[in-house]
Amino acid sequence: MLTRLKQAAAVWLDSGKHVQHASDEDIRQIDLIRIFPFIALHLMCIGVFFVEFSWFAVGFAFAMYFIRMFAITGFYHRYFSHKAFKTGRIIQFLFALLGACATQRGALWWAAHHRNHHRSSDTEDDPHSPREGFFWSHMGWFLSRKHVHTQEQLIPDLMQFPELRWLDRFDMVVPVVFATAIFFLGVLLKHVAPELQTNGVQLLIWGYFVSTVVLIHVTLTINSLTHRFGRRRYATNDDSRNNWFLAVLTLGEGWHNNHHHYPGSVRQGFYWWEIDISYYLLKIMSWTGLIHDLKEIPAEVRAARKVAEA
Ligand SMILES: [Zn+2]
Ligand SMILES: [Zn+2]
Question: pLDDT > 90: what percent of the chain?
Fold first, then answer.
């Protein structure tokens, strides 16, 4: 037990550490000791019943959700995983940092697993196909030993940046610093703006814990629910679907059947009525010159391989 705890702690502090497991252990099995931080993240949300309520804290939680969701969909997904646009090294780093605040591990780990998902969607090599059950596709896959480490061979283009490798390896650092900063912001606001009725612990619970848990689970629905529920426009070789409701919650990721049809596109809502907030924000960023070379979907690709109307 103590050895298991030590091993788990070593990987929390340095995710690059490889731990030897007994050869008879099932790598799809969930290691309850290792995932303790993930469980604690959820338990801390109960804190909302023990702190005084303020609308400021709720609004702050919403803002933290929105900003970090944009970093995940716009950058972890569309930039790091798919290279749907180009940017410089500083913006690349800043959004890797902001994405790391989402507590979904480093951009390299995220992008490598996601590239694998596109290579092998809904086959037995897919890291998180719902064909293996809802729980597995939602969170069993990353809570198991099978997907702890970053598959570096899938991301040679990203491995050349030492700053990204550092964020990926020490992936606990940014979330801890982020949560601590929110706590101190609450402490500060209690003194300089008492009318907001917030304080350190309240802002930490809402702005970090509640916001992060909701953010994580909504992100995960793209793996678990959009390969199950929604409409199929394109005859892709997988079960991906377009789901407008999840597209709203995830700032555009719900257009998942569109995305599997043409993953290289910066926009996932292929038509004007398909709301894709990340795309709008990326477009605005491109006007300022922060990002460039946005890859649009060619008209003939958008019109091709459609599922026949019934
Ligand atoms: Zn998918
Ligand atoms: Zn993708």
Answer: 86
Query: Structural domain of residue 290, as residue ranges?
Result: 50-101+175-303
Q: pTM of the full predicted structure?
A: 0.95
Based on the structure, what is the number of domains in the chain?
1
Span from the CA of 190 to the centroid of ligand 2 (angstroms): 42
What 3-state DSSP class applies to 258? helix
In which band, very low, low, confident or very high, does the pLDDT at 310 lie, cut at 50, 70 and 90?
very low
Q: Give the ligand whose atoms come closest to the C-alpha of residue 243.
A: 1
Ligand nearest to the CA of 110: 2
User: What would the two tokens of residue 285 be?
Assistant: 């960023």
> Are 27 and 144 in contact, with CB atoms under 8 Å apart?
yes
In a domain, 135, yes or no: no
Cα of 222 vs centre of ligand 2, distance in Å, is 10
Q: Which ligand lies nearest to the CA atom of residue 268 in the structure?
A: 2
Within a domain: 279: yes
12 and 173 in contact (C-beta within 8 Å)? no
